[in-house]
Specification:
This protein is an alpha+beta fold. It has 20 helices and 23 strands. The radius of gyration is 35 Å and the shape is globular.
């Protein structure tokens, strides 16, 4: 066998054409993050947001930051959005309240340092919206990415000053630097407002998507108020969404060691910019619940972040873990009662839905699942809620709106879209068959049939459910996203609970073959109450004398008075008209509990209940046989029989002085505490019908005379003067007793 020839090193010469072309190769040396801010394709690759949705990304992130701030500081102010669409530009501004002038944007130089991340949210695991707290930098360069000649400043108003940030983008050197900070210190406003001017939105479809996102964003934030001003080529429109309820007083949103692996905990401490800060302050400022144990971790006040070693960090991690049990339930900023959360979501969706879409709220289905995710060292609670509202008309397809931690995005359906065909796996309740799906539509289809039916296969008519609006919402302190723009989730911790909850909701949706839309469309009790209070508020604003005790128009109410009028004017007529029961066992309590909430959240100007002249305490009380009784609708028949001679009077203080007369002569007293509400008038009717006598004692002035005249007119009219001889004699005897009472009190009698 002939040997292979191997040239020796000395004689071997590389042919010119095989020599490496050292001088012809090109190597890049720019900052790899530079293009992620300035080039459309890189922004899309990094964030999952297409260029035509850059404007929507900006409004979403701005709303996220505003909502987080107001929620964290329990501020009930309105979040205000202005958008102005012109042919040459598109301006977006988002304003949130900061009445206590809490410092924000305390270090704008670092915030706009494109060489380092500067975030107040990074590496923290609590329920929060928005990107990783650093989105404002990407927002500031998106205009340039759309138009390389764009150089409009980002304007930030905060803490009584306005700052304008101009960026210098040097493509040659691959650098982004703030070229100029302009500051104005002449305003008195403490609100925070972000203003960004972008290249125009030319496509109407993209603009409508922007407006739709603004509306859908409010859906999960039923505890916050929003006002959107849209200016489109000079045409103005405003949409306002009042909070359905205040932020829950007991709402708590802490960080916890149980959301971290040991490595992640070390990364959190190592990544904090101010390394001279104590470990205690670092953990306290990042809201670790474990530090709330008084005195237990005070020794961490003497250790700075720069003094930490891996061994010390590990010990702190395990000490925190051992100090208390993990959270077993997640706190939420709304009322946790099923009926109230369901109704709040329905009310908000009715506000934002397209006018052409008709839905059947009577047959809406709501389900909330509360779960616990458990890993090696990681354990945290989460909530997944689903609301399904049958569609009557306006769409032949299921409509899905997804939200995560009270936020949504232009690609909200992608939140729950898995990467694999078996992203979701669960056991079908009826048959025990294991099903799998890649997205919510597949979960719905397979929940209808109970089988792993393909996307193209037809569902048997007898198993088809009526198409619905499906609202799905996940709340968890630890959410992993697959992109910066938070368009895709890592679903593994939640997939089984999501699938099983949707299956249960689907099982309760009416079958398509048997579905009949709710034909009886009567106003709900809440809608009637809202209408009553709205009218009352209009009356009060048109005639403030209603609230003036010295006025002839004075007309105070109690919460019981509201119930009485609502029952009489609205609910009884609904029952008669529709032949159904509206007034149920707890209806009265439900109505009175909602009065303050509707006043403060649904009425223009957000008045307090008292501003409508509605008071919590009874406005009439009856004293008889040494005890007091509230005068309300349920007690009128029994109260009318407690005294044959009853004196109605205004001032309780005087009554307390002379009530002994009643004890001596067997009189009963009713204290109205001002002008008569409906219940005392009805009590007078009952007393007269039972053969009793009534006297009204008031101040001898115009207001007092008016009280007596109005009661006579409203209650008995002309019949007051038509008595037989026996009735006249009884009345005179009663008036004789009353005159003795007048002498004792100094009152004048009408």
């Amino acid at each position: 066998m002939e040997k292979e020839h191997v040239p020796d090193d000395k004689n071997f010469v590389i042919p010119p054409e095989e020599m490496p072309a050292i001088h012809n190769e090109v190597f890049t040396s720019s900052d790899p993050n530079f293009w992620d801010y300035v080039r459309q394709k890189d922004i899309t690759k990094n964030s999952g947001i297409e260029p035509n949705n850059f404007h929507s990304f900006i409004i979403k992130e701005s709303l996220d930051n505003a909502a987080d701030f107001q929620e964290r500081n329990r501020i009930d102010g309105v979040i205000i959005v202005h958008s102005t669409r012109n042919r040459d530009s598109f301006k977006i501004s988002v304003r949130n309240s900061n009445p206590n002038n809490i410092p924000v944007f305390t270090n704008l130089i670092e915030t706009f340092n494109f060489k380092r991340a500067h975030s107040s949210k990074s590496n923290q695991y609590c329920v929060t919206r928005g990107a990783q707290g650093d989105a404002i930098k990407k927002m500031s360069t998106m205009g340039y990415a759309l138009d390389n000649k764009w150089n409009e400043p980002l304007i930030i108003q905060h803490n009584k000053k306005v700052e304008r940030i101009y960026l210098d983008i040097n493509r040659k050197q691959g650098k982004i630097t703030p070229s100029k900070f302009e500051e104005t210190n002449t305003i008195e406003d403490t609100d925070t407002e972000i203003v960004i001017t972008m290249p125009p939105i030319n496509d109407d479809y993209d603009y409508n998507a922007f407006k739709r996102l603004c509306k859908e964003y409010t859906l999960f934030n039923t505890h916050l108020s929003y006002r959107f001003h849209f200016n489109e080529y000079g045409n103005n429109s405003t949409i306002e969404f009042n909070a359905c309820h205040p932020i829950a007083k007991e709402y708590d949103n802490p960080n916890s060691i149980y959301c971290y692996s040991e490595t992640e905990f070390g990364d959190l401490l190592n990544d904090i910019y101010a390394q001279k800060m104590s470990v205690y302050d670092a953990l306290n400022k990042t809201r670790f619940r474990e530090l709330r144990q008084r005195g237990r971790f005070d020794h961490l006040k003497n250790i700075t972040l720069e003094q930490l070693t891996p061994e010390i960090t590990t010990k702190i991690y395990h000490d925190l873990n051992d100090s208390m049990l993990p959270m077993s339930k997640l706190s939420v900023p709304y009322d946790t009662k099923y009926c109230k959360r369901k109704q709040a979501l329905i009310d908000r969706y009715q506000q934002i839905k397209p006018a052409s879409l008709k839905i059947d709220i009577e047959k809406a289905v709501y389900k909330k699942a509360e779960g616990i995710y458990e890993g090696d060292y990681i354990r945290f609670p989460f909530i997944f809620e689903v609301l399904a509202i049958p569609i009557i008309d306006g769409s032949k397809k299921w409509k899905i709106i997804g939200g995560v931690n009270y936020s949504t995005s232009v690609n909200n359906i992608r939140y729950f879209q898995g990467q694999y065909t078996n992203t979701y796996q669960w056991t079908y309740a009826e048959t025990g068959q294991v099903l799998q799906a890649s997205d919510i539509i597949q979960i719905i289809r397979k929940s209808e049939t109970g089988e792993d039916i393909g996307d193209e296969a037809n569902i048997p008519l007898g198993k088809q459910r009526q198409q619905c609006v499906i609202i799905v919402h996940l709340v968890a302190p630890r959410i992993e996203y697959q992109s910066y723009g938070k368009s895709f989730l890592t679903l593994q911790p939640f997939q089984s609970d999501i699938a099983k909850t949707i299956e249960e909701v689907v099982s309760r949706i009416p079958l398509k073959s048997r579905y009949n839309p709710s034909s009886i469309k009567h106003p709900s009790v809440t809608e009637c109450l809202r209408e009553f209070l709205k009218k009352r508020w209009e009356d009060v604003r048109q005639n403030p004398a209603i609230l003036d005790p010295k006025s002839e128009d004075y007309d105070a109410m109690t919460q019981s008075t509201v119930w009485y009028n609502l029952r009489k004017q609205y609910l009884l007529s609904i029952e008669e008209k529709y032949g159904m029961t509206v007034i149920k066992e707890n209806t009265r309590e439900d109505v009175t509990s909602k009065i303050s909430t509707i006043c403060e959240n649904d009425l223009e100007g957000h008045p307090k209940r008292e501003q409508l002249g509605i008071f919590a305490s009874p406005r009439a009380a009856m004293y008889v046989d040494g005890s007091w009784h509230n005068v309300d609708i349920d007690k009128l028949p029994s109260l009318a029989k407690k005294g044959t001679d009853v004196v109605f009077m205004e001032k309780r203080g005087v009554l307390e002085i002379v009530k002994y007369i009643g004890d001596i002569y067997g009189l009963a007293f009713v204290n109205t505490q001002g002008h008569f509400a409906e219940y005392p008038k009805d009590l007078i009717r009952e007393i007269i019908e039972n053969g009793g006598n009534v006297a009204i004692l008031t101040d001898f002035d115009c207001a007092g005379i008016h009280i007596a005249e109005k009661v006579i007119s409203d209650v008995v009219g002309e019949e007051l003067f038509i008595y037989d001889d026996t009735r006249v004699f009884e009345l005179l005897c009663f008036l004789y007793l009353a005159m003795n009472f007048v002498k004792a009190t100094g009152f004048k009698m009408c």
